[in-house]
Amino acid sequence: PRTVVIGHVTTDVIVIPARPVVDGDDNEAAVRITPGGQAANTAAWLAWQGTPVTLVTSVGDDADGRARIAELTEAGVDCAARRHPGVPTGSVVVVSFGGRRTMMSQRGANVLLAPEDIDVALIELPDAGHVHLSAYVLLDPVSRAAGLRALAAAREHGLTVSVDAASAELLRRTGTRRCLEWLRGIDLLIANEDEARALTGHDRPGPAAGALTATARQVAVKLGARGALWADRDGALFTVAARPVDAVDTTGAGDAFAAGLLTALTSGADARTALRLAGELGAAAVRVTGARPGPRAPGGAVPATSQ
Ligand code: ADP
């Protein structure tokens, strides 16, 4: 069955300044332009594993939009992307300094995702089995209707649903009570520690994950270099450690993790096996620069990431 991923595609401009950013300074920086967007990254990692995937997104009718869609198509992602003339494709400037990252995003065409886009895509995909929604769609007031439609449409079509919690800051700003209300009844929630804390008020990820099973049937909390934690309504609660790797760039680790988890769970793997595969993909992502996988593995197999 096909996984339908719903959310953003962006062009990321990663800026690594030589010195701290100060008003009026004439600083130097390393600048790298790479493809990104949480949903697009997860879709690319799904395709890399050989999992059939469609990305529902929107772009501007511009060179950036064409390039982003061409790359994804080349990577094996089926793209259902409406083009919006006169609106730029989304982009993000990431300023990375001393282990801290500041992001500034131009929402562009990403917020123009509409409920009809979801319906059209799901009607045209008779082999769809699972919907994965990046919560950025829900957390922006302009695209919120499309996010809510994705959750409702998945239920109507009898598809399982997962949500990536996307951003602790945006969850807080939106109001976590409202967010939990929207997410109630989903099959799987994927969150990092900050997002789990924002949603529950629990500082420790174990209690946070346990509390979140009131909202989602299954919960995965990402713990960075420490691995990830699983909790579900059947009472399971365990951690799987991360593979020790030399981290080159952690951008997109969470998005790759989600793709590993979804590939395993949608093909019937048990939770522990799924968390292990998710960790393998997360570790693969931190070993490469940028948020996307390299060329597809032959036959869709996941190459060994041991070193
Ligand atoms: P996010 O980017 O969404 O905050 P994390 O940073 O927790 O998510 O990364 C997601 C997953 O990627 C982790 O659960 C882990 O499996 C893997 N990962 C992240 N950072 C490292 C690291 N330094 N070493 C090994 N694995 C990592």
Descriptive report:
- It is a single chain.
- This protein is α/β, with parallel strands linked by helices and 307 residues long.
- The protein has helices at 38-48, 63-74, 115-123, 136-139, 144-156, 168-174, 176-183, 193-200, 205-212, 253-266, 271-286; strands spanning 2-6, 10-17, 29-36, 53-60, 78-84, 91-97, 100-106, 128-134, 160-164, 186-192, 216-222, 228-232, 237-240.
- The protein has one domain (2-9, 37-89, 107-292): Ribokinase (UDP-N-acetylmuramoyl-L-alanine:D-glutamate ligase), CATH 3.40.1190.20.
- β4, α2 and β5 (78-84) form a beta-alpha-beta unit.
- α1 packs across α10 (253-266), α3 runs parallel beside α5 (144-156) and α10 runs antiparallel to α11.
- The longest helix is centred in the last third of the chain and has 16 residues, at 271-286.
- The model is unreliable at 300-307 (pLDDT under 50).
- The site of adenosine-5'-diphosphate has 19 residues, from α10 and α11.
Features:
binds adenosine-5'-diphosphate; 36% helix; alpha/beta; single chain; nine-stranded mixed beta sheet; disordered C terminus; 307 residues; kinase activity; UDP-N-acetylmuramoyl-L-alanine:D-glutamate ligase; four-stranded mixed beta sheet
